[in-house]
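FORM 7B: Structural annotation worksheet

SECTION A. Query
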Amino acid sequence: MGLTGAAKKLSAYIGEADMYDGRSLHEALVEQARIAGCAGATVVRGVSGFGATSREHAKHGMRMSVDLPLVVHVIDVPDKITALAEVYGAMVADGLLTVEDVNVLMYRGGMTGGPDAE
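SECTION B. Predicted structure
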């Protein structure tokens, strides 16, 4: 897939303990991105944060939170991101969804004969 130039990034800010249809919400969101044929999805775990309820999500010393903040990022062409944002909107009960303009400089995968190849 040749994804370069103007694109959109969909970000879902959720909690690690959030569930959807009996499974982790972040796994369900990544799966929906795959079903939509998006270029890829990345889940990032935060160490601290708070959302609309102002309840802190953090890991403090011996007290380990099981609800750390997560962000699911998906970057692709505008049409795919617009359609996926509607799906995410129906799936995310508590959280934040954003869409941003991005400029893709490079997108590669599955290279053979790269710098570490023999």
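SECTION C. Observations
Residues 5-104 form a domain with the Alpha-Beta Plaits fold (CATH 3.30.70.120). The chain has a mean pLDDT of 87.

SECTION D. Sign-off
Analyst initials: ____
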